[in-house]
Amino acid sequence: MDPNTNRGPEEYGEQDAPATTPGPPAGGSAAAPGGLARTVQLVSGPYLLTVNPVDGSEIEPCPPGEQPAVPGKHGPAERAELARAAEPPAVPVSAGRQGALLERAEETDRLVRLLSRGRSVRVTGASGSGRTRLLDAAATACDGLAPDGVVRLSGYRRTPTDVMYELFAAVHRAPLHRPDRGELLRLLGEIGAIVVLDDLEFGGAALDELLGATPECAFLLAATPDVAAPSPGSHLEEVVLGGIGRGACRELLEGVVGRPLTDEEAAWAADLWFESEGLPLRFVQAGALLRQRVRAGQDAFDGHGFDDASGDGHDAPLPPVGEAASPAPLIASRLSEAARETLRFAVALGGELPHQAHLPALAQDTHADAALGELLDCGLITPAGAHYRLAATVADQLAAAGYDDGAGERALTAAQHYAWWAGHPSVTPERAAAESDAILAAMGVLTGSRDSGHPSAAVLLARTAAPAFAAALNWSAWERSLRHGAEAARIAGEVAEEAYFHHELGVLALCTGNLDRARAELEASIGLRGVLSDRRGAVAGRRALALVADRSGTFTPPAGTAAAAGEEIPDARSEESASPPGGVPAGLAAAPAVDATAPTVVTRSAVASGGAGGGKAGSRKAMVLGARRNLVAAGAGALLIAVLGTVVTLGAVSGSDDGTGEKVKTEQSAEPGQDGDGMPADQPGTDRTRTGQGSRTGTGSGSTAPGTPGTSGQPVNGTTAAPSNRPTDPTTRPTDGTTRPTDPTTRPTDPTTRPTDTGTGTGKPTDKPTDKPTDKPTDKPTDKPTDKPTDKPTSQDPTGTTGNPAPSSANGSGSASTTSGGTSGGTTGGTDNV
């Protein structure tokens, strides 16, 4: 909006203005607790965006009840009001500047004729050739030709997307609503208007994108020759605008001066016409020189005590033509001090001129607002959208004359003033957005110049103005201010502010559909806030990052962060319970299960964002297959170890043909220190035997029942194992990780003897009779005396007694020979528990 229509004390820099916070304006603004920060809720495509200047904007899917209605179109009165607000502020100028458009009648008629037929036209002319005046005349003549009227837009520092959204806002009534790309194109296709776009800065494919999105509109474009030409398929009519004739230039010069030219001045004007190629702006500036020349001569004549109102014969000499080709320093030297200070601020801000309401505070002159009309009358500034900027080549001419001295300090002054003004509660976001070019210019100067030493001022200005730009739906200015702020915060070392800017950039990228950039910016913000222990900011970042993951269909934890307690990784349950592709192989279907107490780790592989659906499904299958292959391999390894241990044990305990094989004794029961599965609790080499204790059955008792594999002194696969109290053999491979090795003195009597069937439950070699009575006593003395040295020494009792263990008790469950059914049952149970 035009700040001139509703001036407030804050616009003039008066610090004694009332600082009370007004009520929340329409659209959801409200004062934040503990300060003047305001939040604004708006709808951006499918999202509900809450602009929060404190912790960062919050974004969520828009609830069904919050979806805005279909935007309606403005009426003629509303369009006229919007057009008036989009014009630069009106300032008083001399009568000569309001003269008729000279030698442009033919071009005006051609433009109106083409636009009335629905054709789009591009006017190409050099800066100062009068393009803006020509577009104004054509737009006035085309009023009423299109259903949606004539829409005036500015292409100054605008992209095709910016122009499309500005066209949508100029035609449709949609407060706090920014449609997504698809809805925007649909709504633009329904607009039928004549769009006048001045200061166009793009061409080629970008211009084709704009024209293709608005098939029912006729465009009148104006650009300089250095802008890219339209593509051959754009079907644009090209109108080249040159200079005006010699007579028209003289007429224009007389209108600016306000009197007929003298012969000397006419000759001087003819030389200037050849040098300037007839550009009208050059003759407006030349007219300012002539007026100042007359005034200077009159002042010099009055100083000698004479009074000659005509001034003839007493004027200062005419400047040379070469000096008139660059007249800005000469013109500025004869202006008021407030006007010269305004030019210095404009040079410091890269050619951008602040609104006239801000000039008294910046120039420290209460009458500085009148300097804008003085500069416009001299041809040193030109309109650019809703504000003014220095005319072509004027900034370079003034910089060469020393007007850029102290530019850094003036940029700092402007930044401090705008930071206070934009944060004032009485300034609406629309008024702040109208000053976006000057505000962004101040940020750029303070950020880009490392020698200025004031990056913190740029951080403060960006922190204050960025939320206002977002609330005003000027997202191009929002993005530029965030990038300036992030760079300035990095230079100044303000980590908290840098985290805020990265968060806002991530939210902006999510709103515009750039998920990769949104993820990168949000992860950077979360990392910085994690260093600062900023929980509230980190939570806001994680919420936005979760929405990015939901939109992209992937889950990628932030870099350097872990999942919080109680948070569940998506798809973890489905991956844990999934089976390997193709099922479990038949040979491994009956494999013993892995220890249930061992943790199962499900690994996740990184999934590239934005990938196709097939790539995501393939990655998930790969993750599940990798996890299941680990489990299958563990089961197969356990089965292999059990089989190898059984074979080794069978060979170790198989007796000779003379019946001298060792037998399982009842005294070899589990110790109280063993675990519930019958595994010895002590390490190998420290076994201790409790004698005189009967064997008990059950896996949960203190002893292990016969038939449980993996425990010394128990049958494995129906074969009697060696007693657990024999010395260990380092060369014998254990059956599992907790079973003691077998006795090194125990060797198979016949290497060729091997059991033919380990699953029959007998556990006897085929060369042994199978019809032995099961009640045969186990305390049969050995064939050789225990005190006689032999090549097969017997086991040594830990208590120091040499010889075989004591005879077994009458308990049948502890005998060496068991029934077929009991042995088979022990074998089956041992297989299931490997």
Structure overview:
Among the domains are: 72-242, P-loop containing nucleotide triphosphate hydrolases (Rossmann fold); 571-769 and 819-834, no CATH class. The protein starts with 29 loop residues before the first strand and ends with a helix. Helices cover 41% and strands 7% of the residues. α18 (436-448) packs antiparallel against α19, α19 (455-471) packs antiparallel against α20 and α20 runs antiparallel to α21. The radius of gyration is 47 Å and the shape is globular. The chain is of the alpha/beta class and 834 residues long.
Short description:
By secondary structure, the protein is of the alpha/beta class.
- Report the portion of residues in β strands: 5-15%
As a whole number of angstroms, the C-alpha radius of gyration is 47 Å
Total number of strands:
14
Overall form: globular
Class computed from helices, strands and strand pairing: alpha/beta
Distance between the termini: 81 Å
Helix content: 40-55%
- Helical stretch tally: 27
Point out poorly predicted stretches.
1-36, 300-314, 558-627, 655-834
Major sheet attributes? 5 strands, mixed
Average predicted confidence as pLDDT: 73
Compile the SSE list and pairings.
Blueprint: E1 30-31, E2 38-44, E3 47-51, E4 58-61, E5 72-73, H1 76-86, H2 105-116, E6 121-125, H3 131-141, E7 150-154, H4 160-171, E8 172-173, E9 177-178, H5 181-188, E10 194-198, H6 205-213, E11 218-223, E12 237-241, H7 246-257, H8 263-276, H9 280-302, H10 321-325, H11 328-333, H12 337-348, H13 359-363, H14 371-377, E13 381-384, E14 387-390, H15 394-400, H16 407-422, H17 429-434, H18 436-448, H19 455-471, H20 475-492, H21 495-511, H22 515-532, H23 535-552, H24 572-576, H25 586-589, H26 613-653, H27 820-832
Parallel strand pairs: 2-9, 6-11, 6-12, 7-10, 10-11
Antiparallel strand pairs: 1-2, 2-3, 3-4, 5-8, 13-14
Helix pairs in contact: 2-3, 4-6, 7-8, 7-9, 12-16, 16-18, 16-19, 18-19, 18-20, 19-20, 20-21, 21-22, 21-23, 22-23
